[in-house]
Amino acid sequence: MLARTLSATPWGIDAQTVTVEVDVHWGQLPSVQIVGLADAAVKESRERVRRAIRNAGFDLPARVVVVNLAPADLRKEGNHLDLAIALGLLVAYGHLPPEVLEGRLFCGELGLDGTVRSVRGGLALADLAARLGVREILLPTETAAEAAALGLVPVIGVDTLAEAIGHVLGSHPREPSAPGQPRDEEPGSLDLADVKGQEVAKRALEVAAAGGHNVLFVGPPGSGKTLLARRLPGILPPLGRSEAIAVTKIHSLGAERGPGGLIHRRPFRCPHASVSTAALIGGGSVPRPGEVSLAHHGVLFLDELPEFRRDTLEALRQPLEDGEVTVVRTRARLRFPSRFTLVAAMNPCPCGHLGDARHPCRCPPNLIERYRSRISGPLLDRIDLHVEVPAVGLAELRQGTGVTTALVAARVARARELQLQRYGPEAPTPTNAGLDSAGLRRHVTVDTAAQALLDRAYERLGLSLRALDRVLKVARTLADLAEAPVVTATHLAEAIQYRSLDRRSQP
After folding, report:
1. Short-list 436, 438, 454, CA closest to 491
2. Which end of the chain, C or N, has fewer beta carbons within 10 A?
3. Nearest-angstrom CA–CA distance, 254 and 257
4. Which parts of 280-424 are beta strand (E)?
5. Exposure string over 91-103, b if 16+ CB within 10 A, otherwise e
6. What are the CA-CA distances from residue 126 to residues 105, 118, 271 (Å)?
7. What is the mean pLDDT of the chain?
8. What are the tens digits of pLDDT across the range 206-239?
9. CA–CA distance from 178 to each of 142, 155, 160, 306 (Å)?
């Protein structure tokens, strides 16, 4: 007898449909074959599924069993197909009527005792089920809570194979799962007011949040670079629903643990300097999202920037420029979104005390030059704000509370509203940082004095054309914070001050 049902397998940050066909017939040599470009984990499901079915109280006589996973040219990976294969076998053996499989999608890993274990990508599976128009999707209970957050298709959570059978037969129907709550979100208790001094750096952080700009903090150890970086997510606008769905999809398929529900806070990722290129950018033998994609719509913080491998840093160029990472394999071309705000931090020299009046620097000039050269010019060009963060003096430490996160977040939200009105909701990135050259000419108007200042800066600082565009984008953000329709010389002068490494490179 032939049985057919629907399941799915992860594909990048989405899921692809897999039609599970099970044929059972008599033969001289009983066997179970799984065909359809399945990896080792899928092929091992033969034993898991048979033991789970028998421990659920069903007998499977020795027959020739062929399980086909279509389409045949799509590689099937992971543990998502066990539940669909088990129910297909039960129908093919005649234990269940064929109509119980119609209009349903099944995903889940089976234990030998018949338990249904969680799988990755609940939100992506629910999105696929909604696009296919199925009437419901059966998932492990933990995964179902995450998938239910989409709200487009009924999601039935089951803990055992017996519960799944009881539901599809209608003897013990189960209610659709309620949306779960994300388990790993930190409370928003990091306030900008806790950072003493560093008014210039705080202002730069506000500009970065308002326009979506990348920022590099340069200063001695203990000056507050990490404190500043960790407070950036709090002043960014909250995630919209479409952004939250995109972020949750990525974390569901790429993080070590699924989020458990719809993520509402902007992600903050802080990989160690020893991170590999594949872990940072994405890829691997089984392509998975890297840190740049896990930071999508959030913040990627790279502390001690020169300590990262040179090839790893250079691989950041594509996600910084295009907002996505393309991973090419023999049978696949996958795209992982990676629109994030980069916050990087570095010391001014190997010892960290260059320019610090309290701790003299003893690094020779050639060592300082070699240290800074670990960060290439093209990568620096893609960072809009270069900000010096000096050591904090005793008087600044004794000062009272400064500007709060709530106050800065309100100004940032207003600047973002102006950009949304200017570029429209259909723009890929409705922020100043996302403007291309044509967008700069169309949307950024400078007055006469500002244009003259820009020309002088271009000649004296030796800015590249990309750096010149970055200055204009930052100036436009400063004008938005001031709610000014035209970029003036005041806005442009402040934007130029945020190119400290360009100035430092001049004789």
Report:
1. 454
2. C
3. 8
4. 282-283, 288-289, 299-302, 324-329, 332-337, 341-346, 385-388
5. bbbebbeeebbee
6. 9, 14, 30
7. 90
8. 999 999 999 999 999 988 999 999 999 999 999 9
9. 11, 8, 18, 46
Q: What are 252's two structure tokens? A: 């569901």
Residue 210, CA distances (Å) to 156, 188, 192, 213, 371 in order: 41, 19, 15, 8, 31
Would you give the distance in Å from CA 410 to the centre of its chain? 25
User: Strand 215-218 and strand 385-388: pairing?
Assistant: parallel
Nearest to 349 by CA among 224, 221, 226, 227: 221
User: Mapping DSSP to helix (H, G, I), strand (E, B) and coil, where does residue 335 land?
Assistant: strand
Spell out the alpha helix ranges (H) of 264-404: 277-281, 291-294, 310-314, 317-322, 365-372, 377-381, 394-397
Instruction: Give me the mean pLDDT over the 182-188 stretch.
Output: 58
370: number of Cβ within 10 Å: 13
How far apart CA 336 and CA 10 sit, in angstroms, is 13
Of 293, 299, 343, 286, residue with least CA distance to 318 = 293
Tokens 């799984």 -> residue: 34
Looking up tokens 């010019």 gives 377
**What would the pLDDT profile of 120-173 be if each residue is shown by its tens digit?**
999 999 999 999 999 999 999 989 999 998 899 999 999 999 999 999 999 999
Q: Which of 141, 104, 139 is nearest to 125 (CA)?
A: 139
Measured CA distances, 389 to 30, 82, 369, 404, 405 (Å) = 72, 55, 19, 19, 19
- Residue (of 108, 416, 415, 109) closest to 240 by Cα position: 416
Phi-psi region of 233 (alpha: psi -120 to 50; beta: other; left: phi over 0): alpha
Write the pLDDT tens digit of every residue in 386-420: 999 998 877 777 776 678 999 999 999 999 999 99
Distance CA 110, CA 58 (A): 15
Place of tokens 């999707």: 137
The structure tokens listed for 405 are 């996160």
Contact present, 113 and 52 (Cβ < 8 Å): yes
Buried b / exposed e over 174-193, threshold 16 CB at 10 Å, is beebebbebeeeeeeebbbb
DSSP 3-state assignment of 110?
strand
Given phi > 0 = left and psi -120 to 50 = alpha, else beta, which region is 147? alpha
Beta bridge partners of 7: 18
**CA proximity to 349, closest of 499, 503, 218:** 218
- Tokens linked to 161: 């194979």
